[in-house]
Design brief:
By secondary structure, the protein is mostly helical. Helix content is 77%, strand content 2%. α1 packs across α6, α4 runs antiparallel to α6 and α4 packs antiparallel against α8.
């Protein structure tokens, strides 16, 4: 990477990080409060009645899924709102005419989304220590799964922002697609509890693979083979990156 490209990439990522850290009360605190309520309600109150799931206590079972849910939501929303704001204010046109490769633009915005997602995930993980002791079964799997997931949904947020024509369009995918897929992704239950037909249907949901790999990193349990899960996750990353690169390089949704 040339020094000019490095400066451009660093500037984009710095801008993104400064954007969400300046308003940390709106970007970092609400997810922490929401996940704390999940820990109390689903973990302590309901979990005591459910008992164990997959050989561990219910709160231990759902903590990895709740952490990943916060990473997914914040990675996606950060890039979607930031890139659309730049497009709405026509700041993105400066990037389009600048001698900056498309991959630098994508990496800069995605990098900001990944940093916010991982930061929120770290905060939620620290909060979970008040409810359940932390144990890590496989650190490389844990880090690879959360990083790949954050990249994937940052790319998804970028594509959403490119296609969006108004601020209302930014909320359509999170509300009607992302939230249902997350709740049906095995955060609160094991896939083995489902009938065979619904187990097969659940495997169409990409979030199932992310939740299971992350849970394996913490607890060493998974409903889906690890290699299969990683193949699906990285496959989705490649597909979404290719779509984002094609759209931005051709100016789809960006040029008047």
């Amino acid at each position: 990477m040339s020094s000019l490209y490095y400066i451009a990439l660093k500037s984009l990522i710095t801008k993104e990080v400064n954007r969400f850290t300046r308003i940390w009360l709106q970007t970092l605190v609400p997810p922490a409060i929401t996940m704390s309520l999940y820990f109390v309600i689903f973990g302590n109150l309901i979990g005591e009645r459910i008992g164990q799931m997959s050989g561990v206590s219910y709160i231990e079972f759902i903590v990895p899924g709740l952490i990943m849910m916060s990473v997914i939501t914040n990675s996606y929303s950060n890039v979607a709102s930031s890139f659309f704001s730049s497009k709405f204010q026509r700041n993105v046109e400066e990037l389009m005419v600048a001698p900056v490769p498309t991959w630098i633009i994508i990496t800069g915005y995605v990098g900001g989304g990944v940093i916010r997602g991982l930061l929120v995930g770290t905060i939620v993980t620290c909060l979970s220590l008040f409810f359940v002791p932390l144990q890590i079964f496989d650190l490389p799997v844990l880090m690879a799964s959360v990083l790949a997931t954050s990249i994937l949904f940052s790319l998804g947020g970028l594509i959403n922002a490119v296609l969006a024509k108004s601020f209302d369009d930014i909320s359509i995918i999170p509300n009607f697609v992302l939230t249902p897929l997350t709740y049906l992704g095995g955060v609160f239950y094991s896939l083995t509890m489902l009938p065979d037909f619904w187990q097969g249907v659940s495997q169409v949901n990409p979030i199932v693979y992310m939740i299971n790999t992350f849970r394996y990193g913490f607890l060493g349990i998974t409903d889906i083979p690890l290699l299969h899960s990683f193949a699906m996750i990285f496959g989705f990353v490649v597909v979404l990156y290719s779509i984002a690169h094609w759209m931005i390089s051709r100016g789809i949704g960006l040029r008047s």
